[in-house]
Write a structure and sequence with these properties.
One of its GO terms (biological process) is fatty acid beta-oxidation. GO terms for molecular function: delta(3,5)-delta(2,4)-dienoyl-CoA isomerase activity. Pathway: Lipid metabolism; fatty acid beta-oxidation. The protein has 14 helices and 15 strands. With 395 residues, it is α/β, with parallel strands linked by helices. α1 packs parallel to α4 and α10 packs antiparallel against α11.
């Protein structure tokens, strides 16, 4: 699959660490104030990041030292926004156009919250209005000591309509404090934000905060992406539902787990290979942990078992993988087990498995690449030798 295009006029998208994306708001000459195209682009960026298999954590920050964002560019909105575009429309059509405009704006900012990957906000300097809208969508918020926050909309004659009034009360901060800062539009600083729980940490500088965010992103990226993304999903669901509903949701979500407590990994990827950016053969579930070695070559995939038995759950999951392979690898047409021709799935059904814990299963595959799941035993080079006897036999 081709990598998404992350080129935008007012955003820099970089990758400071493997599987960690960094989104920088880039309009520093205007204190990173948002024009309409910027929030449209922001929504597009987070929708792409949500489904990008190479991304496991996201950092949201901004260019420059003065501001994370000063909010909406009010002058640009008054000249080119929905109100200006409907200036000569009748009241009903104008109201309809503005309502649609607000809903589109809300949807683009909500893309941050809907992103399947955890999002870390790093705030600094001026962080007004839209800064609160955006960062209440984030999973983790940290800031530099110079950060100044404000829910500014009351001072420009509006109720905040892009998310602050609905998300800030659910950010585990006191409701009295929420109402005070929203009704008065007063500024509050980093220490106050930390005290009430709006941010989880304050750092001396933007650079220090950003460094911590990259470190945190790297830690998140090192963990099971399925587990991390499922945890985010359940936490967000439970925030808006009853305890009973949340418990039921996690039971449904976790029901396909394997018997050793490992959730199926993303299709076609093994966690150990994934950490080094390596693609795996078409077996993306944790049954791979039941084998000493997996080698994908131009003719076959070799699976050499460990001297333990896989349970029926592993067998069923692996059977499903064989019957529903990706386009990239094609459909296994036959298999050998103990020197005997069998259908790929029969090799894992009952007696063919029993008593053959040191045998190998061979599945044809067109992928001309050799991959070792346990890099501590073998290198990735097709010409390398393996010290382990069973691995040498597999070669």
């Amino acid at each position: 699959m081709a990598s998404p295009d992350y080129t935008y006029n007012h955003f820099n998208i970089t990758f400071p660490s493997q599987h960690v994306a960094q989104v920088e708001i880039n309009r520093p000459q205007k204190l990173n104030a948002f024009i309409e195209q910027m929030w449209i682009d922001l929504g597009a960026i987070f929708r792409k990041l949500s489904i990008d298999p190479d991304v496991r954590a996201v950092i949201l920050t901004a260019v420059g030292d003065r501001a994370f964002t000063s909010g909406l560019d009010v002058q640009a909105a008054s000249e080119n926004g929905a109100v200006a575009r409907t200036e000569h429309a009748d009241p009903a059509r104008k109201a309809t156009a503005i309502r649609r405009h607000i809903l589109d704006f809300q949807e683009d900012i909500s893309a941050i919250e809907k992103c399947e990957k955890p999002v870390i906000a790093v705030l600094h300097g001026i962080s007004y209005g839209l800064a609160i809208d955006m960062t209440t969508c984030c999973d983790i918020r940290i800031c530099s000591r110079d950060t100044r926050f404000s829910v500014r909309e009351v001072d420009i004659g509006l109720a905040a309509d892009i998310g602050t009034l609905t998300r800030l009360p659910k950010a585990n901060v006191p409701m009295s404090w929420v109402k005070e800062v929203c009704l008065t539009a007063r500024d509050f600083g980093a220490e106050e934000a930390l005290r009430v729980g709006f941010v989880s940490a304050v750092y001396e500088s933007k650079g220090a905060a950003l460094g911590k965010a990259v470190e945190m992103g790297r830690l998140l990226a090192s963990k099971s992406p399925v587990a991390v993304q499922s945890t985010k999903q359940i936490l967000n669901y439970s925030r808006d539902h009853s305890v009973a509903d949340g418990l039921n949701q996690i039971a449904v979500l976790n029901s396909p787990i394997t018997e050793d407590g490992q959730r199926p990994r993303p299709y076609g990827v093994d966690s150990r290979a994934q950490a080094n950016g390596r693609k795996l053969v078409p077996n993306g579930v944790s049954i791979m942990s039941k084998f000493d070695i997996v080698i994908a070559m131009s003719e076959h995939v070799y699976l050499v078992t460990k001297p333990i038995q896989a349970g029926q759950t592993h067998i069923d999951l692996f059977k499903a993988d064989l019957l529903d392979p990706t386009e990239q690898y094609g459909n296994p047409r036959s298999a050998k087990f103990g020197g005997k021709e069998v259908t790929p799935w029969r090799a894992f059904l009952g007696h063919e498995w029993e008593g053959h814990s040191s045998e190998e299963l061979t599945i044809p595959t067109p992928k001309a690449k050799k991959i070792i799941t346990d890099s501590a035993k073998c290198t990735e080079s097709p010409d390398s030798s393996c010290a382990n006897t069973s691995e040498g036999e597999a070669k």
